[in-house]
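Methods — Computational structure assignment.
A single polypeptide chain was analysed. Its primary sequence is given first, followed by the predicted tertiary structure written as structure tokens.
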Amino acid sequence: MLNRVSIDGFFAGPNGEIDWFVRDPEVDKAVHAREIYSETNEERQPRMVLFGRVTYQMFERYWPNVSADPSASEELRATANELDQMTKVVFSSTLKEVAWENSVLVSGDLAKEVRKLKQEEGPDMLIFGSGSIVQQLANEDLIDDYLIVVTPVVLGEGKPLFKDVNKHNLQLLQATGFESGNVLLHYAKA
């Protein structure tokens, strides 16, 4: 799981806004190095990404255009190309189709489908954003690692990342601070 949160634990503002993120290329590099690829069968493979509808639609509007944008940085274009290559599993009961390259739409039971995916051979799974997916999978004990970028902002109100999630004991694997005030925390299930 990879998510950004405010100091007071919100992953989005009250209306889903994320304009409060404190952008930092150094944070992006650190996250990219850890999360885009997984080591499987001794070779680097792009991860499989799990999305809820809202986050998928936000990513789909933005990232496919970045790889062809000459004004985008080389790092952003590389990330866009990698996201294009990744298998994107979209959980939604309202979408009828997904158009982004390598996307698959799933409308079945989230926990059941993720359990099946975890048993298959292949790359590790990653959840970008998608707070409701995080909440449901955390309650089913289906998240192994938590990468959280704490942004130096207090929102006061918004959408809490761990709303209605059962207690989980986690083990801190690494904490990295950045000049921007962001802190990258990496936790694993205890």
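Note: The chain has five helices and twelve strands.
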